[in-house]
Amino acid sequence: xxxxxxxxxxxARSPVAGRAMRTMAARSTLARRFVGGADxxxxxxTAARLREAHGIRAxxxxxxxxxxxxxxxxxxxxxxxxxxxxxxxxxxxxxxxVDPTAIGYMHSDALGEDNARRIGMAARGSxxxxxxxxxxxxxxxxxxDRTCALHRNLLVAGIPAGLTLQARRRRTPEDLAWAIRQRxxxxxxxxxxxxRALDHAGRARIDQAYLDAxxxxxxxxxxxxxFYPVFGTHDDRLAGAxxxxxxxxxxxxxxxxxxxxxxxxxxxxLALRALGYNVRVYLPFGADWWPYAIRRxxxxxxxxxxxxxxxxAD
Length: 314
Ligand code: FAD
What we know:
By secondary structure, the chain is an alpha/beta fold.
């Protein structure tokens, strides 16, 4: 991890910086770039615009993570449920992403699972089409096993839940082996929570692990089980290799998708659409944008100018 990235992570965690940014500007340059709306209505309008103009789909994510307060947890859950209803009303796929630590896992597993069921049922009940999912994000290693267990419990209960897995973790292939035999969706990402003891070492090894996992997700067994692979990456080199693999294995372009973060590499999102691939953006909304947006800045030093503009005029 670069010094620049470490510095932005410290800024993301700083309550002082967060408060200062929120009072400085309701929606700064930074927020507009990476956040799809201040509230659910604005987020759905953004999603509808992307769908209509470019055929790009969206997964709505209400900003807020690592929440222990019961009132704040209930608020987050209601926002996710509200997003399901608003997406259905707009005729869009009902697709929401959820952090387990935002919906009750900081309080108790029972509360977290109960709330995940409520959101999953809202996703299913809103429209009931094949493209409707609640996808569980994968956070740090402290909650990994509980997130995987939650995913299994939801599937057993018939709730359309997907899961995010991190290629950097050495044990990801074990989790994949089970999931590809289910009618579920897995979003493969490189992983944003490095932990030396648990991870592959170095960028080249992580990229190779990503491709190894992609190969499992695009296996014949996965295709036959109705599994839906999602590749969450902005890395065009990896995407190129995945397209080739999918072609060789006989997967139609409609059988899987690429997912990117809203505001990151929009040029590449459009290029993939032009090639006929399904593209979705992970579209955050809400007022608590600072930790999320500053982490995006840290992922690419070229984004530093956005931070500079946010701190000056808007
Ligand atoms: P990189 O090698 O980091 O980037 C590839 C290219 O994209 C480079 O050219 C790079 O400069 C450019 N790029 C990457 N990020 C940015 C940026 N912010 N601004 C401008 N250019 C950029 N991680 C988790 O640990 N858990 C999750 O649940 C999770 N969910 C995710 C969901 C989605 C849809 C996506 C896309 C990512 C998610 N991540 C998650 C983050 C992920 O783990 C990576 O940290 C992040 O996507 C960067 O990796 P990359 O594959 O894009 O490759």
